[in-house]
Amino acid sequence: MFYFDPAYMLIGIIGMALVFIPQMLVKNTYKKFAKIRTSNNLTGADVARSMLQGAGINDVLVEPTSGTLSDHYDPSKKVVRLSEDIYYGNSISSFGIAAHEVGHAIQDYQGYMPMKLRAGIFPAVQTGQMLGPLLIMAGLGLRYLAGMGEFTTLIALIGIALYGSVVLFHLVTLPVELNASSRAIKVLAGGGYLVDHREVDGAKKVLSAAALTYVAVALYALIELLYWIWIFFGRRD
């Protein structure tokens, strides 16, 4: 049965490694630079508000939120939410992460196309994440185990298309996240928030580690999609 295909088990192992290792790297890098205070007396919240003002954005709030590394920008409510360590913190990690989230707010304000595309894909992703693999397995299972015909092929194809939207979402997320980090570093270094190369390099390391998580998730999703495509087209006989 293809459900127990060794290749799929291998993909699962690779996927766990791709998710786990970058997450550990992010946490370790974050903790390292969370202990290093900046030369500037601002907090992460101060940096975020200052960057928003500098970009001419007056309708986005900056609020604290619970949790660790729970920082995000909510475009629907126009709010940059920073975890308390980032919001009140004065570390290199605080500045880097706060600036990154403001980078997303600036993308939204400027109509950054990849961000708009990601928002447009998101409704399909919510369905595809859960329903896509189920339809693929159901369609292929009924075809190979029960000998059913083209209707099951259509079910599997719909599942592949739905999961394809998930992969597309992750791929589009990469330029969105990388661009936000690039904006963050540029403003932090050029705006006097971080005053020397040591601080700027530290912020770069924090944001680069975070970017790896998005690369890893996108790669895992792509590998899994290619597996299902191989199963579908490679075993049609």
Write up what this structure looks like.
There is one protein chain. The chain has one domain. It is elongated, with a radius of gyration of 21 Å. The protein has a 3-stranded mixed sheet. By secondary structure, the protein is mostly helical. α5 (113-146) runs antiparallel to α6 (150-190). The mean pLDDT is 89. It has helices spanning 6-34, 44-54, 84-87, 92-110, 113-146, 150-190, 197-234, and strands at 61-65, 72-74, 79-83.
Structure keywords:
3 strands, 74% helix, 237 residues
* Helix and strand composition category: mainly alpha
Number of DSSP-assigned strands: 3
Largest sheet: 3 strands, mixed
The global form is elongated
Give the distance, in angstroms, between the N- and C-terminal Cα atoms. 15 Å
Poorly predicted residue ranges: none
Rg (C-alpha, Å)? 21 Å
Taking all residues together, what is the mean pLDDT?
89
Total helical elements = 7
Multimerization status: single chain
Q: Write out the strand line-up for the largest beta sheet, numbering strands in chain order.
A: 1-3-2
Task: Spell out the helices and strands N to C.
Answer: HHEEEHHHHH
Percentage of residues assigned to helices: over 70%
**What is the total number of structural domains?**
1
Strand content bin:
5-15%
